[in-house]
Amino acid sequence: MTRVDPLAYLSDELSALDAQGLRRKLRVLEGSQAAGSRVDGRDVVNLSSNNYLGLTTHPRLVERALKATEELGVGSGSVRTIAGTMAIHLELEARLAAFKRTEAVVVFQSGFTANAGTVSSILTKDDVVISDELNHASIIDGCRLSRAAIKVFPHKDAEAARRIAKDLPANQRKLLITDGVFSMDGDLGALPELCAVAEEFGCIMMVDDAHASGVFGKNGRGTIDHFNLHGRVDVQVGTLSKAIGALGGYVAGSRALIEFLYHRARPFLFSTSHPPAVAATAIAALDVLEQEPAIIDRLWENTGFFKDGLQALGFNTGLSQSPITPVIVGEGSTAMKLSDRLLDEGVFAQGIAFPTVARDKARVRTIVTATHTREQLQFALDAFAKVGRELGLL
Ligand SMILES: Cc1ncc(COP(=O)(O)O)c(C=O)c1O
């Protein structure tokens, strides 16, 4: 009997993506993640990574990772709640709590699991989430898993969030949640205004600061520090996978919140903890943030130079306030064409289309890092100018 492929419909879906020019090819990095990289067989200026401070290859981090591996092995061998809590995990959590100025921190395997695991465990189907429309997918998945009612407010519209909170019963448990930095637009959440709404209506206030740690605030403490909101955000999520250069996510808050997550957050309970090298690397990254803050100044100097350059050329860079600068072109296929042609010219900047961003807001997303040289950034601007004209975008 010939077997009918029950997954044949997936090939049809892929053909449809092909027809729309939206089929994604995974770009392959042949060396390390760095400002100048080798991608798909060519040397490029890399404007696609979240390696804001260049820490993926920082000698202090590499040395600590190697030492931890030699001393402690390559794996933790268990979930945290059984045998997988190593002293180095607790050392990292204590360092992060001091860095974030909160009572306690718990580390998850990724920023994604930190968001999804936290929102889904602190809420139930009887609760309500008030969520910015552009919040990260991991927040949305956490909301769905919690089965709480989800009420979405227009991007950064704190007044709309206030109206939603006001219409809910006073004794209704509510979570007000925003990204600190929005990952596709690079703008900042309306944190001060949303904290005021949360306080007025007794909402739990939660901020996902994945793109802000190591970038905003004193020594890279994030947007809560940037806006001076210490003590007003109940749940802070951060990631160790972007500016920190390694892998992981964390939740910072009260001791009770963290102890509760030990008991209820499913990724914490049911997935193995990080290898010791990951924790050691993140500790070394915190040392760098505290002892070499000039690295963050360099990130911002490069950000200013590159953003000004793109704007001077006439590109639509949206409302970015961070090192993430989108070049918004509209059609998904145009964004992919721009990205492909830039790669031909030696610049790696990913095209982003629906469903990651709205259908008419496709873009090429750029992120500069502290380790890009001026020559690399000028080279990239020249390529954007050439390809932008070629595609009729300028
Ligand atoms: C806003 C935001 N939150 C959370 C995450 C997830 O972080 P991680 O890559 O550590 O899972 C990301 C990264 O993609 C992000 O952009």
Class computed from helices, strands and strand pairing: alpha/beta
N-to-C series of helices and strands = HEEHHEHEHEHEHEHEEHHHHEHEEEH
What global shape is seen? globular
First-last Cα distance: 58 Å
What is the number of helices?
14
Please describe what this structure looks like.
By secondary structure, the protein is of the alpha/beta class. Helix content is 43%, strand content 16%. The protein has helices at 8-19, 59-72, 87-100, 111-122, 137-146, 158-167, 191-201, 223-226, 255-264, 266-270, 276-291, 294-313, 332-344, 374-390, and strands at 36-39, 42-46, 104-108, 128-132, 149-153, 174-179, 204-208, 235-239, 249-253, 324-330, 347-348, 351-352, 362-367. The strands form three sheets. It has a seven-stranded mixed beta sheet, with helices on both faces. Strands 1-2-11 form a three-stranded mixed beta sheet. Helix 5 (137-146) links the parallel strand 4 and strand 5. Helix 3 runs parallel beside helix 11 (276-291), helix 4 runs parallel beside helix 5 and helix 12 packs parallel to helix 14. It is globular, with a radius of gyration of 22 Å. The N and C termini lie far apart (58 Å). The model has no long low-confidence stretch (mean pLDDT 96). Bound molecules: pyridoxal-5'-phosphate.
